């Protein structure tokens, strides 16, 4: 123990000297080199403790980004051999440490803005390490949940909205996600609010998170005012489409409910509109078709020019998707609007329940 403290003091002097000289990155690299060289004398626990000691020095001295570099190195690569980022399955004791707990302690005691900068660097690597660990321990799960909640708070406070979204989705807290989307949408134009919420539903569906998508809808519907004149019709249409897709995906399988066909009709109706708003929405739509309805992605990139012309002149396009054809025979599709599609879904759902 005395030797560990002595080694940490030596490192501290060198790290602070580099920081005071205006070289924070060099300080982080010095810490990496020191730990890699001294790991055997430090031991597993001591190596971890020294990494976090250096990270705390950097975070406390306006070098949070460089603390993130140091921690990212340790999480991804470790100090070599068996001196890796350690996630303890069991309960902790004096000689039984866990780097998730040490990370939680570091972020909890740092200034919030400094901690947010560190989290930006290590969020991805931590989750990759979690997947590799593939643990079932309730003790470690609780530590991860506490860490995730803290990271979500830090992302939200720093208005890192996309990362906050990912973190809250991982927590599965759909009421919080709804509030987060409302705050995020408030940063943009008022008319874009339905687009923010519709895109979130589509993203959840594209990740095959059907239950979460419908939970999110149930707590968010009252936040989108259909009669709000500030919302553009196109943005409301994205919101409407997200409702169709989520409710359709949640329907119980039944012979009378042809989910791929209904999806194909909705896709045919909305894909040109989505392309005009943001081509990435059509990419989400393609993925939703594949993961939720078993529809093969469209091989054609971008909207069909002939379909666009036919739509402009009132004719029904000839769909290329297998989802909207029967036995590979071309057939003219009826021109359906939002209420038509919703009525079709509701009637099929009723038929399912009666059956």
Count of discrete structural domains: 2
Structural class: mainly alpha
Tell me, rounded to a whole number, the average pLDDT.
84
Low-confidence stretches: 299-336, 351-355
Shape: elongated
Report the sheet with the most strands, covering strand number, pairing sense and barrel closure: none
Radius of gyration using CA atoms only: 26 Å
Measure the end-to-end span: 72 Å
Helical proportion?
Answer: 55-70%
Short description:
With 355 residues, the chain is mostly helical. It has helices spanning 2-20, 24-60, 64-77, 99-109, 112-133, 138-157, 161-171, 174-185, 193-206, 210-220, 233-250, 259-277, 279-293, 305-312, 338-354.
Explain what this protein looks like in three dimensions.
The C terminus is likely disordered. The N and C termini lie far apart (72 Å). The longest helix has 37 residues. This protein is 70% helix and 0% strand. It folds into 2 domains: 170 residues; 184 residues, no CATH class. The protein has 355 residues and is mostly helical.
């Amino acid at each position: 123990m005395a030797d560990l403290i002595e080694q940490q003091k030596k490192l501290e002097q060198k790290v602070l000297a580099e920081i005071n000289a205006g070289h924070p990155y060099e300080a982080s690299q010095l810490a990496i080199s020191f730990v890699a060289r001294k790991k055997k004398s430090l031991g597993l626990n001591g190596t971890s403790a020294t990494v976090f000691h250096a990270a705390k020095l950097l975070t406390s001295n306006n070098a949070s980004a460089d603390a993130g570099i140091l921690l990212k190195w340790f999480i991804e690569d470790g100090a070599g051999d068996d001196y890796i980022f350690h996630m303890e399955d069991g309960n902790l004791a004096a000689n039984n440490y866990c780097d998730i707990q040490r990370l939680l302690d570091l972020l909890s005691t740092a200034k919030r803005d400094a901690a947010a900068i560190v989290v930006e660097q290590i969020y991805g690597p931590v989750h990759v390490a979690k997947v590799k660990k593939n643990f079932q321990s309730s003790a470690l799960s609780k530590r991860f949940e506490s860490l995730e909640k803290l990271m979500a708070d830090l992302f939200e406070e720093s208005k890192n909205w996309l990362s906050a979204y990912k973190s809250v989705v991982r927590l599965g807290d759909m009421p919080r996600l709804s509030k987060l989307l409302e705050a995020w949408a408030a940063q943009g134009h008022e008319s874009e609010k339905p687009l923010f919420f519709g895109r979130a539903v589509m993203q959840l569906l594209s990740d095959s998170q059907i239950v979460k998508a419908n939970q999110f809808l149930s707590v968010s519907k009252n936040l989108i005012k259909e009669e709000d004149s500030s919302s553009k019709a196109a943005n409301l249409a994205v919101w409407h489409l997200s409702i169709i897709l989520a409710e359709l995906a949640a329907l119980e399988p039944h012979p009378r409910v042809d989910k791929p066909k209904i999806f194909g009709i909705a896709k045919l109706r909305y894909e040109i509109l989505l392309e005009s708003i943001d081509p990435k929405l059509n990419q989400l739509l393609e993925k939703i078709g594949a993961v939720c309805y078993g529809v093969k992605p469209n091989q054609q990139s971008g909207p069909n020019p002939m379909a666009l012309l036919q739509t402009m002149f009132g004719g029904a396009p000839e769909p290329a998707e297998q989802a909207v054809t029967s036995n590979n025979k071309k057939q003219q599709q009826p021109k359906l609007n939002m209420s038509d599609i919703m009525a079709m879904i509701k009637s099929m759902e009723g038929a399912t329940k009666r059956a």
